[in-house]
Amino acid sequence: MRSALADIDALILAGGLGSRLANVLNGLPKVLAPINGRPFLDYQLDYLAAEGVRKVVLGLGYGAQMVLEYLARTKLPLAVETVVEACPLGTAGAIALARPTLLSDPVLVLNGDTWLEIDLEEMLAAHRASPDALATLSCVVVDDARHYGSIELGTDGRIAAFIEKESSSSAGLINAGVYLLSARLLDALVVMLNLSLERDVLPHLPSKTLHAYRVHDGNFLDIGTPESFGRAAAHLAARNIKLSGAVSV
User: What are the distances in angstroms from CA 179 to CA 34, 88, 219?
Assistant: First the structure.
């Protein structure tokens, strides 16, 4: 059966500097971070292909040439296009730059340094079931939310508030870095260069237009710090999906 994701374009935001991992990766961009002998990007592309996605756009910035060279010599599991920032634009700006290549409604957007196993077809169905949704945001509970900030849900299940990062360790519901963004919102982002999707856009959307898709047992991973990157090998070895495997040629 043809996946509903076959008609959905996906954008991976992979232009960040990765300054916290600079000493670990020796200049590599985070999407090429080696985990169990493969770049992190391989895991993301294989996962999206297994979910039925047919087209991915990579939003590149820091280390873009290294990523382009890797793509050129690698057999990929799905079609990949690239958009390169001439200078850092922020996550909202990166989406705006890629807008002409994103033709579906909605568009799937993922962070290039996080991993979340999620039923994307189910998330898409939930998004489409709510015609007022400008965006649907994946959420997952983690044991220590202080590095992320947390999310407060209303009684209707929609996102009511974003709570700033806290100094003390506690469990909380966080933004898990997988989004479905409507064409209406994407068009509005075109003028939002140098802004953050997470800080400057999503918290300010009109009431009840930002929906939450809660993920249980989502195998969430953020590779953005040396500590979390050190756990990535064991974490991805325990993933639940069957991967086809990108092969370097």
Answer: 25, 21, 17
Structure confidence at residue 242 as a pLDDT band (50, 70, 90): very low
The answer to whether the beta carbons of residues 179 and 137 sit under 8 Å apart is yes
Residues near 211 by Cβ (< 8 Å), separated by ≥ 6? 126, 127, 130, 133, 135, 136, 137, 157, 158, 159
Could you read off the pLDDT of 137-172 as tens digits, one per residue? 999 998 888 888 889 998 888 999 998 776 667 888
What's this model's pTM, rounded to 2 decimal places? 0.91
In this structure, CATH architecture of domain 4-241: Alpha-Beta Complex (3.90)
The residue extents of the domains of the chain are 4-241
Q: Which residues pair with 59 in a beta bridge?
A: 13, 83
Contact 170, 145 (CB under 8 A): yes
Are 57 and 10 in contact by the 8 Å Cβ rule? The answer is: yes
Residue closest to 209 by CA, chosen among 126, 135, 105, 109: 135
Which H helix or E strand runs over 44?
helix 40-51
- Are β-strands 9-14 and 107-111 bridged in parallel, bridged antiparallel, or unpaired? parallel
β-bridge mates for residue 13, sequence order = 59, 111
Strand bridging mode 55-60 / 9-14 = parallel
